[in-house]
Write a structure and sequence with these properties.
- 81% of the residues lie in helices and 0% in strands.
- By secondary structure, the chain is mainly α.
- The protein folds into two domains: 386 residues, Growth Hormone, Chain: A; 55 residues.
- Helix 6 packs antiparallel against helix 12.
- The longest helix has 33 residues.
- The chain starts with a helix and ends with a helix.
Length: 464
């Protein structure tokens, strides 16, 4: 007999692992820079190497699980993730660490979209599904916020390698629980593998991340950087053209005819780029510029965890009650306030002011995650749950990747440079702009016109 809430708890363990690992490394960045002699771009790659690979393979993992079995792919992902974590803990150089982070990410890409697909197929009642997604959103937010806090304690007490050790027992526990409680399931009509589309996605995301990270050092007018932008443009145009003609595309472009779904994709990119960029710069600022220890820097980020823990369930209730617009307006407003509070950041800025700004970002992420997930899977046929949730998860990871890459590019100086605090000002203004964009998209996504487009896409996809 299936126990839905035990299934949800097991799936949330995988979410906790993948999401926490996006942020737990942030607090370890100064230690990595010292021990592995890493440059700022190397530090960016230690995070973006992980997020780029996850973003690139999430959709493939979702559709593969729909075909071969969600439980099977989920367990394989957990095992690969645990192996990658062990390898990361033995890295002797920043290049080795980035390579092992890629192994981690391959496992991680098999976990979150597959877990969401399992949840969607377990909770068939819309109200129960909304509550389950709200719980999922709470775990996601808490894990993202606890990453820097737990990372700070581990770096301070056991060294940076310990931030990877902590993943292994959790992954093993999730594998055992999956074997015991999660039933096997497959899509009635799974989508075919799309190798060309998959390759183009990897090329576009890798090229875009490369030019954003390496641009400040190489020079924005250098042949390599300009060539990278050309690869991004040509690759994206080719991907859209190819997927439009393909019968069973990896990216079903018809989904984007739904205004709520398209808006959710943009919301994920905007919100997660703001949040992850803020975490990246804040971790460097607090430790390198202000001289705080890793554990003290982690404690400064504790309000993010608290606000996320409080606000994510509240967002789930609002979404379940049909008040998606309110959740998005709150998210956008608090995100804009969070950025505005520290647009004049310097070495004398009170820590209380910085903590308040980060807490606002935590509130924003707590309120925005559930509307994104709900828009991605609600109304879609259950047979396409893996693809739809994969697209939503990909948007989050793309946002995280771009946020870290852009924050480093915008600042353009090392964290130990006296100009670093002032150099962050333009990025905080982009966070303010991101908050305004979230509010605008919230009104667009919840309009009557948007709901009509969602209904028409549901009928179109269901009939195909």
């Amino acid at each position: 007999m299936t126990r839905p809430w035990l299934v949800l708890a097991t799936c949330c363990l995988s979410l906790f692992l993948v999401s926490m690992d996006v942020t737990i490394v942030n607090v370890a960045l100064p230690a990595l820079a010292r021990d592995l002699h890493a440059s700022t771009s190397g530090l960016q790659w230690s995070i973006d190497g992980y997020t780029v690979v996850i973003a690139s393979f999430l959709m493939l993992a979702g559709s593969t699980a729909d075909r071969l079995g969600r439980k099977r792919i989920f367990q394989i992902g957990l095992a690969v993730f645990a192996l990658g974590s062990l390898l990361c803990s033995f890295a002797g150089s920043i290049e080795m660490l980035v390579g092992f982070r890629i192994v981690q990410a391959i496992g991680g890409s098999m976990m979150n979209p597959v877990a969401m697909s399992i949840i969607v197929n377990t909770f068939t009642d819309p109200k129960q599904r909304a509550r389950a997604i709200g719980t999922w959103g709470a775990v996601f937010g808490i894990s993202m916020a606890l990453g820097p806090i737990l990372g700070g304690v581990l770096v301070q007490t056991a060294g940076w390698r310990s931030v990877f050790w902590v993943n292994v027992p959790i992954a093993i526990a999730a594998i055992v629980l999956t074997a015991k409680f999660v039933p096997e399931s497959r899509a009635a009509r799974p989508r075919r593998i799309d190798p060309v589309g998959q390759l183009l996605i990897v090329i576009v995301l890798a090229a875009l991340t490369s030019v954003l990270i390496e641009g400040p050092m190489a020079g924005w007018r250098s042949p390599w950087i300009l060539g990278g932008f050309v690869v991004v443009g040509v690759g994206l145009a080719t991907l859209i053209g190819y997927e439009r003609r393909r019968v069973e595309a990896m990216i079903d472009l018809r989904f984007f005819r739904s205004v709520p779904f398209a808006s959710a994709t943009l919301l994920a990119v905007v919100a997660f780029s703001s949040f992850n960029g803020a975490l990246f710069l804040s971790s460097l600022y607090l430790q390198t510029a202000r001289g705080l220890t890793a554990s003290h820097a982690g404690l400064c980020l504790l309000p993010i965890a608290i606000t996320l823990a409080i606000c994510a369930p509240m967002s789930g209730k609002l979404v379940g009650a049909g008040r998606v617009r309110l959740a998005l307006v709150v998210a956008g407003t608090t995100l804009a306030i969070g950025g505005l509070v520290i647009t004049a950041l310097d070495l004398a800025t009170p820590l209380a002011q910085i903590i308040a700004a980060l807490a606002c970002c935590g509130i924003a992420m707590g309120f925005i995650n559930t509307p994104i997930t709900n828009a991605a899977v609600s109304g879609m046929p259950r047979s396409q749950a893996g693809v739809a949730s994969g697209l939503a998860s990909t948007s989050r990871q793309v946002g995280a990747t771009l946020g870290i890459a852009l924050s480093g590019s915008i600042v353009g100086v090392a964290a130990d440079d006296p100009r670093f605090p002032t150099a962050t000002h333009p990025f905080w203004w982009t966070v303010v702009a991101g908050g305004v964009a979230v509010i605008a998209l919230g009104f667009v996504a919840t309009s009557r016109w948007a709901r009509r487009t969602a209904d028409s896409v549901t009928d179109l996809v269901s009939d195909s």
